[in-house]
Amino acid sequence: MTMISGCCSLPPFLTASVLSILLTEVAERFSYFGFRAVLVLYFHQALGYDESASVALFAFVSSTAYFTPVLGAVVADAYLGRYKTILWFGLAYFVGLAIMTFGAYLPGLDDDSASSN
């Protein structure tokens, strides 16, 4: 059994690399399904797309999310290696979520406040 900071023991198959991949996957799934739940509303209300375009963009984002692991596998095998690929794609994912979040909440970025000045 492996000790973590002297407090807990883990089975031997839970190495640091396995734990980092597991935690990355949990965080990725949590954020993906969290933003996916409100994505059509974001496209429709915050960005001003009509409902059919919002649903079409949602379908595009969903299909892209399921296709990008193939791109990640190619990048990992040919260029960066698996851990650097997880790091860089995770950072890109985080930056995209941050832009979407800040774009929805920062004052002055909506059309109403821009047209009133």
Structure description:
The chain contains five helices and two strands, in the order E-E-H-H-H-H-H. Helix content is 77%, strand content 5%. The protein has 117 residues and is mainly alpha-helical. Strands 1-2 form a two-stranded antiparallel sheet. It starts with a strand and ends with a helix. Helix 2 (39-46) packs across helix 3 (51-80) and helix 3 packs antiparallel against helix 4. It is elongated. The model has no long low-confidence stretch (mean pLDDT 80).
Counted by DSSP, the helix tally is 5
* Overall geometric form: elongated
* Total strand segments: 2
Mean pLDDT: 80
**Which sequence of strands runs across the widest sheet?**
1-2
Q: What can be said about the biggest beta sheet?
A: 2 strands, antiparallel
SSE topology string:
EEHHHHH
Radius of gyration: 19 Å
- Binned strand content: 5-15%
Relative helix content: over 70%
Distance between the termini: 64 Å
Low-confidence stretches: none
What oligomeric arrangement do these chains adopt? single chain
Structural class: mainly alpha
Highlighted features:
117 residues; mainly alpha; two-stranded antiparallel ribbon; elongated
